[in-house]
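Hi all, posting the design record for the shared folder.

TITLE: backbone redesign
STEP: 1 of 1
STRUCTURE INPUT:
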């Protein structure tokens, strides 16, 4: 049985508008299920194109027990393979990043080309067929410089929907012509779903993120209207309308697209103004890099947010991009990988200062880690019970949980023999 009777019962009785039951955050059984049903079946954002800027450059990503090798080949195509030799299974590349001419197994020197073909395997006899021992490919999609992989035999087909919607928003920022100015790995002692839920709302932002809220309008992520905030909310709404007209004239889409719960490859995007005549998410709301992205000629282009199910969020501004990728490590530990990107021609110390570039999100990530860890401790308590989401500020958290429970339900009710083709048959789980 792929899903135990107890887990099935929790899936079926999940109460809409409330947090999940405690085992969804604390159980190693459910963690193992998440790795199969979620991270083993869906498009997972794991890297950016500047991770592998030149032919032979590679990066590795661990998803559960699977190590994935992402490499740029001699034709400048980015490919993904299982990081496993086809001889006796040794791991091929044992560093997080590097550069190579061919992929050579450190054990017995089986040698593969950058497109995964087995080139050399000594002492295997005249009947040995090299063509049957190429590296095992992993599905890869490159969305305007954001790299997604899928471990399923047949991945969800609705990535095409995501691509069609998002390329007009993302391409103007020129991610493929960026470089990684900084990268930080943070391990949170909390379940990955708590990390994602925390990201999907800003109910907590004013009280917990003083650096981030310098540039973010507090009304930009859901607020209950009241006489006390009516004037401020109305002013913000007028600003959104005015700036949207300006951006539309520049061919910069800004309208919200919200497909978080009705697609297998769920996503959301929106471009919003930044506060204090803001240009970027920095401590003074001004650009952190003088060399602007793409062909931009002005700095005040707001902040474009892009969220994907199940594991990423991103902020695109005129001068830099911040990407966040989440990978579960256990029921109670989660890797949050943050990367800051600037134009590839920007000069460190002249066009940008790394400390200034990263200050807001370094502080925010640490603050969020604390909040996630508080939540994990609470979920482990005998007093924990699912609590209600705010309909004003936590609607997108509910959509994440709705998506997650829907995907578990779909996996639980899919016969084993159909899992290989499950992705291409179901574009939307809502039925």
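Okay, here is what came back for every position:
SEQUENCE:
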């Amino acid at each position: 049985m792929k899903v135990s009777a107890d887990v099935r019962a929790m899936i079926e009785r999940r109460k809409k508008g409330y947090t999940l039951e405690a085992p969804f955050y604390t159980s190693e059984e459910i963690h193992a299920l998440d790795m199969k049903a979620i991270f083993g079946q869906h498009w997972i954002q794991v890297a950016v194109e500047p991770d592998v800027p030149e032919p032979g450059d590679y990066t590795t990503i661990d998803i559960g027990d699977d190590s994935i090798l992402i490499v740029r080949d001699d034709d400048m195509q980015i490919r993904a393979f299982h990081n496993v030799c086809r001889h006796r299974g040794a791991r091929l590349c044992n560093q997080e990043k590097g550069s190579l001419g061919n992929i050579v197994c450190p054990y017995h020197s089986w040698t593969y080309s950058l497109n995964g073909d087995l080139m050399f395997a000594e002492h295997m006899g005249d009947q040995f067929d090299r063509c049957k021992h190429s590296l095992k490919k992993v599905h890869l999609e490159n969305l305007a410089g954001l790299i997604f992989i899928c471990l399923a035999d047949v991945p969800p087909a609705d990535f095409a929907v995501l691509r069609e919607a998002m390329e007009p928003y993302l391409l103007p920022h020129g991610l493929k012509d960026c470089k990684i100015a900084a990268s930080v790995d943070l391990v949170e002692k909390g379940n990955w779903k708590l990390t994602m839920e925390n990201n999907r709302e800003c109910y907590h932002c004013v009280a917990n993120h003083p650096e981030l809220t310098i540039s973010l309008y507090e009304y930009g992520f859901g607020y209950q209207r009241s006489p006390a905030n009516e004037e401020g909310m109305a002013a913000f709404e007028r600003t959104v309308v005015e700036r949207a007209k300006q951006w539309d004239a520049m061919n910069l889409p800004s309208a919200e697209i919200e497909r978080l719960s009705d697609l297998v490859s769920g996503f959301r995007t929106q471009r919003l103004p930044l506060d204090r005549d803001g240009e970027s998410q920095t401590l003074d709301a001004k650009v952190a890099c003088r060399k602007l992205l793409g062909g931009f000629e002005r700095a005040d282009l707001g902040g474009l947010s892009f969220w994907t199910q199940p594991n990423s969020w991103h902020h695109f501004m005129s001068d830099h991009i911040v990407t966040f990728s989440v990978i579960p490590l256990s029921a109670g530990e989660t890797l949050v990988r943050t990367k800051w990107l600037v134009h590839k021609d920007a000069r460190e110390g002249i066009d940008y200062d790394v400390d200034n570039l990263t200050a807001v999100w370094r502080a925010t990530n640490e603050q969020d880690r604390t909040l996630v860890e508080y939540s994990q401790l609470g979920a482990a308590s005998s007093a924990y019970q699912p609590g209600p989401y705010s309909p004003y500020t936590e609607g997108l958290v509910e959509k994440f949980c709705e998506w997650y429970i829907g995907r578990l339900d779909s996996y639980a009710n899919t016969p084993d023999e159909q899992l290989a083709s499950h992705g291409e048959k179901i574009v939307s789980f809502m039925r």
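COMMENT: The CA atoms of residues 154 and 421 lie 6 Å apart.
Let me know if anyone wants the other runs.
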